[in-house]
Amino acid sequence: MADQSLSTPSSPSSPDVLLILLKARTFIALILVFAFFAFNAPNFLSTANMVIMSKHVALNAFLAIGMTFVIVSGGIDLSVGSIVGLCGMVAGYLVLNGIDIGLGWSIQFNTFEICLLVIAVGVFIGAINGFLITKLNVAPFIATLGTLYVARGAAMLSSDGRTFPNLNGNPEYGSDTFRWIGAGEILGVPVSIVMLIAVGLLAAYIATRTPLGRHIYAVGGNERAAGLSGIKVNRTKYFVYIFSGFCAALVGLIISSQLVAAHPATGNTFELNAIAAAVLGGTSMSGGRGRIGGTIIGAFVIGVLSDGLVMMGVSSFWQTVIKGLVIIAAVVIDQAQQKVQARVALQAQSAIDS
């Protein structure tokens, strides 16, 4: 008589179902948050609000994508918010004044050249972070905390703490299209969203399809083992901090263009939103694990939560408390996922052995 147990399909066990739910937690959270505000926040589903909210999400998503690479590699970047503020001020200064070379002469730039210079500033600060961490062996937390203060101070010094207003540009120099970065559209889609799609696809390709992406995960998983296997650990760390600086520079450009003004305090606490989005999207704070797609969904959760709370008239103080609770909950759930994964792996190994 045949053993009927061999022909009976096994149903998913409780740990398997729990693991599936934990892996899909960010998407589930997005659906729940969106549904809650759709019913409770006035005009939440209006077209105008969707457009505004998508622009806000894009800003957080840019930083979160760069932060994901950094955290996956086993580091942290606290300087991104200050880089946003400094890059916005650099953009404002270049649009209004160009570069004074003395004797009444100045070098003026068109919009494309301004963008390149601003991105160069962000990349340069990212490279400084990489140098401090890899060559001088400064802990990432301390190194990026230091550059946070340096970049914020430089932003303040650039205008003595004042705002650069009316960044409309000059048609004579080709800088009058600067506003298009924040207010323009491509085929009906806001420019910032198009830029986010491009950067997101690039980051996902690097993470999943290139040796560099595999090196980032290997360094975060076990730096010593990665080095012994021939991976250029320092070069990999340089890249993640440079890429983070690049993303922060884009945000500085977009915000100054959207507001048609640049203020040195722009970007304050943006790094916290970026970390929250990355962690909520499944990036492990211990390194070695994370997905760009999950991070972008996490950025949507943070963005929808922030805008929804504003529309409901919730105090900004309570908004800060809620974001903190979200970060704590995300880390706790991530730890729970790791424990369930270990349990499922142990059960699978036991089944194979038996």
Brief summary:
The chain is mostly helical. 71% of the residues lie in helices and 3% in strands. It has a domain at 46-268 and 284-292.
Topology (elements, then pairings):
Elements: H1 4-7, H2 14-23, H3 25-40, H4 47-72, H5 80-97, E1 99-102, E2 105-107, H6 111-134, H7 140-157, H8 180-183, E3 185-186, E4 189-190, H9 191-209, H10 211-221, H11 223-228, H12 233-259, H13 270-280, H14 292-311, H15 316-353
Antiparallel strand pairs: 1-2, 3-4
What does this structure look like?
There is one protein chain. By secondary structure, this protein is mainly alpha-helical. It has helices at residues 4-7, 14-23, 25-40, 47-72, 80-97, 111-134, 140-157, 180-183, 191-209, 211-221, 223-228, 233-259, 270-280, 292-311, 316-353, and strands at 99-102, 105-107, 185-186, 189-190. The strands form two sheets. Strands 1-2 form a two-stranded antiparallel sheet. A two-stranded antiparallel ribbon has the order 3-4. Helix 4 crosses helix 13 (270-280), helix 9 crosses helix 10 and helix 10 (211-221) crosses helix 12 (233-259). The longest helix is centred in the C-terminal third of the chain and has 38 residues, at 316-353. This is Erythritol ABC transporter membrane protein. It holds the Pfam family BPD_transp_2. InterPro entries: ABC_transp_permease.
